[in-house]
Amino acid sequence: MIDFYLDGRSGLSPYLQLVQQVRHALRLGLLHEGDQLPTVKDVVARLAINPNTVLKAYRELEHEGLVAARPGIGTFVTKTLAGASLAAHGPLRQELRRWLDKARRAGLDDESVEALFMTTFRATSREDTA
């Protein structure tokens, strides 16, 4: 089961953070078809957010065809986003952890690591499309 969290620094609204976390879990193979998402009540209790925020996120995911609500039972994954490259995740994750360790030893804080990664990622993406 997914363990939601909120990041006040993300710049995303809470409902979009929940949607993004489900998408990421689906893409990484952490959630599978048939898995149940936490109940709205559980998410509200854990994150201290408005139930309408969770409902909005779940409706968005349902609109995208990724989950389906079963009244009185819960919300279940109906589609995965995981690609055929799941086997590559382990080695890539280890390499990324080594890189993060180097960045921390170089004195970078979380915000600096994120800024460095995102600017490099965007620059590389632009180069790939050019």
Would you write up a description of this structure?
Keywords: DNA-binding, Transcription, Transcription regulation. It comes from Nonomuraea antimicrobica. This is GntR family transcriptional regulator. The chain is mainly alpha-helical and about 130 residues long. It has two domains: about 15-75, Arc Repressor Mutant, subunit A, CATH 1.10.10; about 85-130, no CATH class. Helix content is about 60%, strand content about 5%. It contains five helices and two strands. It has a two-stranded antiparallel ribbon with strand order 1-2. Helix 1 (about 15-25) crosses helix 3. The termini are far apart. The model has no long low-confidence stretch (mean pLDDT about 90).
Mean pLDDT, nearest integer?
91
CATH homologous superfamily grouping of the largest domain:
Winged helix-like DNA-binding domain superfamily/Winged helix DNA-binding domain
What's the gyration radius in Å? Answer: 17 Å
Query: Which consecutive residue ranges, at least 5 long each, have pLDDT under 50?
Result: none
The helix content, as a percent range, equals 55-70%
CATH T-level fold name of the largest domain = Arc Repressor Mutant, subunit A
End-to-end distance, in Å?
Answer: 40 Å
Report the CATH architecture of the largest domain: Orthogonal Bundle
**Domain count:** 2
Quaternary status of these chains?
single chain
Taken from the alpha-carbon principal axes, the silhouette is globular
Number of strands: 2
